[in-house]
Amino acid sequence: MRRLQTLVAILVPIVLIAGAAYAQRELTPRSFEAVERPESSGAWFCPHGGGPQGWEVQLQVANPGTRTATIRVRPLGQDKAGEPETLEVEPGSFVRVPVPADGRGSASVVEWFGQWVAVGWLAHAGGEETGVAAEPCAPAAGQRWLLPDAVTETEDDEAYLVVMNPFAREAVFSVTLLGRREPVQHSSTTDVALKPFRSTAFRLGEILSGEPTVAAIVEVSVGRVAAASLGVTLSGGIRSALGYLGTPPTDLTFPGGDDAGSTQLPVMNASPTQGGERVSVNGDILGEGQPPQAFAGLAESSLPPVSARTFPATTSVPSSIRLDAADDQVAAVRRTFGTVSDQAAVTGATPASSWVVLPTVAGSPSHAGLVLANPGTEPAEVTLSFLSPGPDQQITVTVPPQSTATAPERFLNVAPEVGVLATASSGTFVPASASYSLGIEGFAGYAVALGIPIAQGAS
Question: Which segments of 189-260 does DSSP mark as H helices, in order?
Fold first, then answer.
């Protein structure tokens, strides 16, 4: 009996310490910021949404490293989560994984083991809805999300907020909507309890209609979530934009490619009403083969606390936008339009030297595009190479300072539906895939997706 008591006295502290360590791991958001030693496991959270009539969503997974990655894909929705699927992604390879997307609130989780991978989604609308949307997944879940991109101006605009809870604990959150008037908090989006391994969507036009700009603040009181916006326009395709977790950088770059020349920049100021001040914003247009130009619509503009507004611009060449805000409570998304009818949205990023660029081509025929934005003061020498099953080819593109460059079509058209590695031997940059696909001539769908920076030590 004395031996048993002694054994229990030893084991109880060990169990308590292990339990505390597990709880701490669950409560700490995973992050893939640059580290000296790569993590051995992690997860990506993909609030991609979907539709009830034949939507097709594929997760795009790229392994830029030298080791095989094991991934586990789990679909989420309003009901019980789907069964996980385990796959292996070979070193230097790219795969697409179809996932269910039969509801606006559809989402997916991708866990990885042994080797870091980059993950994004590619959605093709079905039924009476058309268009293509693409976006990177979130490398972490958290307790505060800013989402600038929604429109509820007409009956043609259907704006959704997709929120997912990828954990085994219930999440509780509230949503505040911002527009031209006072912020709106509705009973249907206050203290929402989202069960474990569930995802849901809110139709924002039912809460705040008739607005050219609707932004959302998602604040979590229990647990952690990931969130994205989904825009469905019956006459103009679909678009999606991942929210900003926490506080965005005050200097963001939004790459842009071969669009119709029309850009909209929805900008939100999430500063609280009490104690908050108007925030000034300004920006530059970084065009291909031309000097930077001031974003005229942003000149001397400022946003009141808890408000949102859309700024328009026109471009004549492939162009990127650099946005500078005076406060870290400002978030923005760049919205562009294809030459036919589809639209796209891309979030902003800060420059880095190594990226994975996932394709935005949903099928044949297609016109693949890849743009490189350099907001810095030094040229960026960028080498592009395909992941497998693409060919063993590479090309180097020089991106002049404060400008945009496009990858040659002859390079991209060799493997338009394969991921690309983009690495700078000097300078830094921000890349995006901007492509057309489907239809008779390959211009029916248009999508833009920001590249994913490669975690230091992951390759």
Answer: none
User: Tell me, what's the pLDDT at 275?
Assistant: 63
Q: Which two tokens stand for residue 321?
A: 């936008």
pLDDT over threshold 50, residue 69: yes
Contact 351, 434 (CB under 8 A): no
CA dist., res. 157 & res. 177, Å (int)? 16
Picking from 227, 190, 260, 185, the residue whose alpha carbon sits closest to that of residue 448 is: 260
CB atoms within 10 A of CB 215: 32
- Taking a C-beta distance cutoff of 8 angstroms, is the pair 214, 268 a contact? no
Alpha-carbon torsion, ordered 107, 111, 115, 120, to 10 deg = 0
Q: For residue 5, what is the DSSP state? A: H
Q: Are 48 and 135 in contact (CB under 8 A)?
A: yes
Q: Which amino acid is at 339?
A: T
The least confident of 9-13, 105-109, 224-228, 256-260 is 9-13
**How far is C-alpha 170 from the chain's CA centre?**
24
Give bridge partners of residue 112 from the DSSP assignment: 42, 71
- C-alpha distance across the termini of the chain, in Å: 55
Task: Please tell me the total number of residues recorded for the chain in this structure.
Answer: 459
Q: In the chain, where are the structural domains located?
A: 41-136, 144-453
Q: Per the structure block, which two tokens stand in for 425?
A: 């031997």
Q: What are the tokens at 358?
A: 């996932």
**What's the CA gap between 222 and 141, in Å, rounded?**
12
CA torsion sign for 349, 353, 354, 360 is: positive
Residue corresponding to tokens 């008591």: 5
DSSP string, 413-432: TTSTTS-EEEEEEES-BEEE
CATH architecture of 41-136: Sandwich (2.60)
As a whole number of angstroms, the distance between CA 313 and CA 348 comes to 16
pLDDT tens digits, one per residue of 245-283: 999 999 999 999 889 999 999 999 998 866 667 888 999
Contacts of 210 (CB under 8 A, 6+ apart): 152, 153
pTM: predicted TM-score of the whole model, two decimal places: 0.90
Long-range contacts of 453-456 (CB under 8 A, 24+ apart): 453/349, 453/352, 453/354, 453/355, 454/64, 454/116, 454/118, 454/352, 454/354, 454/355, 454/356, 455/32, 455/33, 455/34, 455/35, 455/38, 455/39, 455/116, 456/34, 456/35, 456/36, 456/38
Instruction: Say how far apart CA 202 and CA 173 lie, in whole Å.
Output: 13
Of 32, 45, 19, the C-alpha closest to 167 is: 45
Task: Please report, for residues 124, 214, 239, the alpha-carbon distance to residue 129 in angstroms, rounded to integers and kept in the order given.
Answer: 9, 22, 12
Cα angle, residue 265 at apex, residues 361 and 151 outer, rounded to 5° = 80
Whether 220 contacts 139, CB under 8 Å: no
Nearest Cα to 151, choosing from 235, 225, 55, 56? 235
